Amino acid sequence: MFSVFCMMINMLVAAAAGTWLGFLARGERRLFVVALLATSSACASTSAPLTGGTPASVEVRALNAPLHSQEMSPATHVVTARTTAAKAAVLSNDLIDALLEQSYVTAFGGIAGNRDKLVFEGNIAPHFYVTPFDRFAFVFTPKVVVRMFRVDSKPVRTPSYMPRASLFAPVGARGFMQHFAFLTLSHHSNGQEGEFLNPDGSVNFVDGNFSTNFVELGAQAVWSRSETRTLNGYSLSVEYHPTSWMEEAMRETYSQARVKGSFRGVLFNDWGIPASIVGERISFIVAPTVLLDGTPPPATAGFDRVNLWTAVSVRPSWMDQLSVFVNYYWGQDYYNLYFNRRLSVVRIGFGTQGPTTIDGPAATPRTPE
User: CATH homologous superfamily for 2-352?
Assistant: First the structure.
């Protein structure tokens, strides 16, 4: 099943190649080919048949299962997933949460780079599991990204409304590694009704309309190291914005097709740093995105079609619900109407916690794209 799913991804990327490859410069064509090969190799490595040995047994502890009533305490249950080549493992919300983005708030616009004059940037992304975690999971995320500008009246100017619905399904397992396929339907708009452009041809940042809808098809793998039980994972996906689903004025410049990837890892604090400063575990994420079309803002060294989000986060022992993170982002601005400019910024802030071990918290904030 996973092989069929990977074939679907490769067919989508190959179809995109026929449409957009002619519009790319020579260096960008090489980048596209690298993305295509990465998709193929990732699928090949994770869809290899299970051979030999006894059926794998994976024990998963889900500590943040949803409450059935306000009086009940968070459910703690153990799901034992036995898998063979023909049978996939059972889902757990911890395995999915490990790669879902976390809510966060930054201090001002950043500490270095071409940052805005902000009071803060906030990413509000709670995840609601609509279905039980047996054979698949349906997750709804009513996401909002806001920036409060440091100007008169401190306005929160044209927030990004980005609700999405995602379907996750297990497609195989090997030892302590679980493979998932996912399909996401998402919206992105700023809630305005004004003209996209001003009379002079500039972008209307006050009340200009930004709106697009897109689908994302991808695969991800999450695994736990047996000796430490830390959760690590990676994902690879293709995102597509159909022309008819976009605001007409932005169709020629906004990228409609993207290849996205991410890797998330967890390290134990074995360096003697006090737990009151960094806690017991350090979490990091690296998430590149390649824009296959559109007219992205120019960048040096010819990487104008590449976005890169990196973050490192810790949860000091005296913090309960939050983690502290440092983030570097380089690429196209992801805040609705501002997509025609490029950011290179270092930021610090606070984020919500997610699982870093099979029974533990504290994950890194992920890109709001």
Answer: Phospholipase A1 (2.40.230.10)
